[in-house]
Each structure stands twice: as C-alpha cells, then as structure tokens.
Amino acid sequence: MAVRPIVISGSPVLHTPAARVDSFDADLAHLIEDMLDTMDAAPGVGLAAPQIGVSLQIFVYDYPDDAGNPRRGVAVNPEIFVSPLEIRDATEEDEEGCLSFPGERFALVRGAKTIVRAFDAHGVRFEIECEGWFARIMQHEYDHLLGYLYIDRLDFAEAKLAAKTERKRGWGKPGLSWMPGIDNLED
Questions:
Q1: Burial status of residue 127 (CB atoms within 10 A of its CB: 0-12, 13-18, 19 or more)
Q2: Strands 177-178 and 101-107
Q3: pTM of the predicted model, to two decimals?
Q4: Is the peptide bond before 43 cis (omega within 30 degrees of 0)?
Q5: CB burial class (10 A; 0-12, 13-18, 19+) of residue 60?
Q6: Does the annotation count 141 as an active-site position?
Q7: pLDDT means per 10 residues in the chain (187 residues)?
Q8: Closest CA to 131 of 154, 112, 156, 103
Q9: CATH code assigned to 6-167
Q10: Which residue is catalytic, options 141, 158, 166, 186?
Q11: Terminal-to-terminal C-alpha distance of the chain
Q12: DSSP per residue over 135-154, as a string?
C-alpha cells in the first residue's frame, strides 16, 4: 500500500469531529492498510484517520501486551468508556507524544482503564479492555476522532509550553504536514 503525509497541529481536519464510516468496502480496506503503513513508517503506536487528512472515525494501533504479544488492529466507529481520572498532578510518567505534534512530549493524566467497542475492517463488532499505556493509546486516538489533540487537554503549565513550541516551530496553521520515512522533525 502507501505511506501518507501526516498533518500537523493547526489543520482543520484535526480540530473537527470525524464522520462515521458507512461502508466496509475495498476503499476502507485500502485506507486502513495505508494507515498501518504510515503508522509503521512514522514510527508510532497509533494513528487516527484525521491525522492523514481523512475525516472518518477510524484509528489503528500497534502495542504489545506485557508478555510481548502483538496487539495490532483497527477500530472503526469506536465508542470508548474510560475509568475515572485519578485527581493528581501529571508526572514525567504521564508524558505522551503525537505524530501531529511531532518530536514533542507533554504530561497528561489519563484514565488507567478503558473499554473500546468498535468494528473491525470487515464490519465485525468487537470489544477490548485496555489498561496502562494501551488504555492511554486508545484514549489518545479516540480524541483525534472527536477533533482534539492531546495538547488541547493539557493543564495550564503544560499547555503554555505546548503553545510556545507550536509558535517556535511555525505550526498551528492549515496546510502543514510531514512525510514519515522522509522528513525528520525531531530536530
């Protein structure tokens, strides 16, 4: 399939709720393969369709369980249920990153557990229970489908740092993207 460019913070598609998928067809299968290829090339542990400019409720993920067994899949039209947030300050252990805010990490408190109900690439309904970092990944990717980046959920101090970084890098406006495997935005 193909690796696609990843849009950067400021692109309207990242800040708009995504549309439901109505058809589980060859076009959807092709899009999902492109998303997996793009996630792998980035490299990332998750990728939502809006991050490649497609406003559909789809995200892919690839994160092994504690025993190292692969958990790779797709969630189409997902619903997510999150355990209550622990009231505490975010720490270094809560830092996460985003392919649409590349090369940066900020601390964000997330729920420790999630249940995701979604459809797979063939339209078969499934449910998965997640804990720890896998739960964080699911919440992060689901936020993309609602039109949020994780930086939109940061506390005041972290949000101020993210805004400064966005200005410094020239992000926060439409039309910016990067190509996994080609562009190096870590500098």
A1: exposed
A2: unpaired
A3: 0.95
A4: yes
A5: buried
A6: yes
A7: 94 98 98 98 97 98 90 97 90 95 96 98 97 97 98 95 97 96 71
A8: 112
A9: 3.90.45.10
A10: 141
A11: 28
A12: HHHHHHHHHHHHT--GGGG-
